[in-house]
Specification:
Blueprint lengths: L5 E5 L4 H12 L6 E5 L9 H4 L9 E3 L5 E2 L2 H9 L12 H29 L8 H22 L9 H16 L5 H4 L1 H10 L3 H4 L6
Helix pairs in contact: 1-3, 1-6, 4-5, 4-6, 5-8
Bound molecules: benzoic acid.
The site of benzoic acid (BEZ) has 6 residues, from helix 4.
Length: 209
């Protein structure tokens, strides 16, 4: 499909795709990957993506041999095995499971925020379900409270797989829920995010204005 080794099917608004591009920046692999911007939603999927991932979801990473990897966790794991630097996903020990569990919490926050986005943006207003929306928002709030505790720990001191997931989740909340005001309730997390937002990998992957 392209002269580069791999092709990433993504959307600039997708926080799951952003995680992959941030990792590509951090591990200096961006030049190996063609970025293929696709327009899609759950109710209007992309034929280019479906041909490679039956679920129709992005990100999807097409490899040089024609295989396609998905979802973001699988892609991140694969790409973390393709560079010679310090792994962003610890290979073993307690650190591996702690970082991956934190990354999973960040994904859960994203899942809830994206469900809210779909419910409020795609679904007809008369079909909105406030109880369900509140339950998703509460999930986000509980997740942020746990991340506030973690932000003070050494688990987030280097920019690892957990940090990438959390930073992209917070970026998505700012993008789709600018009214949330999470910084006022979670000061340690806000200070941590302020620092990591200065990284080139985060600055150059901000969601569209
Ligand atoms: C969004 O526009 O919020 C969005 C786009 C792609 C994937 C997930 C969310």
């Amino acid at each position: 499909m392209s002269c580069k080794e791999m092709t990433l099917f993504y959307s600039p608004a997708s926080p799951f795709a952003r995680k992959v591009i941030v990792l590509l920046h951090e591990t200096r692999q961006l030049d190996n990957v063609e970025l293929f911007d696709v327009q899609l939603s759950p109710v209007s999927p992309s034929g280019d993506v479906i041909a490679r991932n039956p679920s129709g979801k992005i990100p999807a990473l097409e490899l040089a041999n024609g295989d396609t990897l998905h979802d973001s966790r699988v892609i991140l794991d694969y790409l973390d095995h393709q560079h010679g630097g310090e792994p962003l996903i610890p290979r073993d020990g307690a650190a591996r499971w702690q970082r991956l569990t934190l990354a999973s919490l960040a994904d859960a926050i994203l899942d809830a925020a994206i469900l809210i986005r779909y419910e409020t943006f795609l679904r007809p207003k008369e079909l909105h379900w406030p109880t369900w929306l509140d339950a998703q928002q509460e999930k986000i709030e509980r997740g942020l409270a746990e991340l506030e505790t973690q932000a003070a720990s050494d688990r987030l001191q280097c920019f690892n797989i957990a940090s990438i997931g959390i930073a992209c989740a917070l970026g998505y909340l700012d993008f789709r829920q600018p009214q949330l005001g999470w910084r006022a309730r979670f000061a340690c997390l806000a200070s941590w995010y302020e620092d990591v937002s200065q990284r080139e990998s985060m600055r150059s992957t901000q969601p569209p204005a």
